[in-house]
Amino acid sequence: MPQSVAGPEIERLIQLLARMPGLGPRSARRAALQLIKKRDTLLGPLAEAMRVAAERIVVCSSCGNVDTSEPCTICRDATRDPSTIVLVEDVSDLWALERSGAVNARYHVLGGVLSALDGVRPEHLNIERLVERASDPAVKEIILALNATVDGQTTAHYVTDALRHLGLTITRLAHGVPVGGELDYLDEGTLSAAIRSRTAF
């Protein structure tokens, strides 16, 4: 077993960084070293920002977005089109669509997708709240902006069945989203084209 070359505090920093998506043990060591080298300009401010975020970030009870206010900034935005709700799997997908500027609607974050393999059932997702929000007479369309994976498509079918009795227009993203692709990895132009070319589901 290789011997540790740093104190336990630094090793803990490395281990925590290694848990981040896209960072393995080697990348985490490089990131930790960079933070340590720039202790005053990077490590200190980052630690403070993380402390404040941990204290103030909440999950919006209406749509499932994360923000420092309840309800979230998007739900409080009176300029948003109240007739359309964009359904996404995760907050990262909401952020990706917002970066694209392709839609000025309201959102609903499911918090995942149905997955028999992972034991994710309908009651584990934010579906019940979606049906409540979709029952508002102002809502006319639900855009299914779910990832084009098998689990994403299974979830889309389930949600469509759950909303069918409301008589809403249900559309899904079209051109530009590859099968097996995930929204968070797509560029803004692709997302804009997918929103503009949505089709009935």
TrEMBL record:
<dbReference type="Pfam" id="PF02132">
    <property type="entry name" value="RecR_ZnF"/>
</dbReference>
<dbReference type="InterPro" id="IPR015967">
    <property type="entry name" value="Rcmb_RecR_Znf"/>
</dbReference>
<keyword id="KW-0234">DNA repair</keyword>
<dbReference type="Pfam" id="PF21176">
    <property type="entry name" value="RecR_HhH"/>
</dbReference>
<keyword id="KW-0227">DNA damage</keyword>
<keyword id="KW-0862">Zinc</keyword>
<dbReference type="InterPro" id="IPR023627">
    <property type="entry name" value="Rcmb_RecR"/>
</dbReference>
<comment type="function">
    <text>May play a role in DNA repair. It seems to be involved in an RecBC-independent recombinational process of DNA repair. It may act with RecF and RecO.</text>
</comment>
<dbReference type="InterPro" id="IPR000093">
    <property type="entry name" value="DNA_Rcmb_RecR"/>
</dbReference>
<keyword id="KW-0863">Zinc-finger</keyword>
<dbReference type="InterPro" id="IPR006171">
    <property type="entry name" value="TOPRIM_dom"/>
</dbReference>
<feature type="domain" description="Toprim">
    <location>
        <begin position="83"/>
        <end position="178"/>
    </location>
</feature>
<dbReference type="InterPro" id="IPR034137">
    <property type="entry name" value="TOPRIM_RecR"/>
</dbReference>
<comment type="similarity">
    <text>Belongs to the RecR family.</text>
</comment>
<feature type="zinc finger region" description="C4-type">
    <location>
        <begin position="60"/>
        <end position="75"/>
    </location>
</feature>
<keyword id="KW-0479">Metal-binding</keyword>
<keyword id="KW-0233">DNA recombination</keyword>
<dbReference type="Pfam" id="PF13662">
    <property type="entry name" value="Toprim_4"/>
</dbReference>
<protein>
    <recommendedName>
        <fullName>Recombination protein RecR</fullName>
    </recommendedName>
</protein>
<dbReference type="Pfam" id="PF21175">
    <property type="entry name" value="RecR_C"/>
</dbReference>
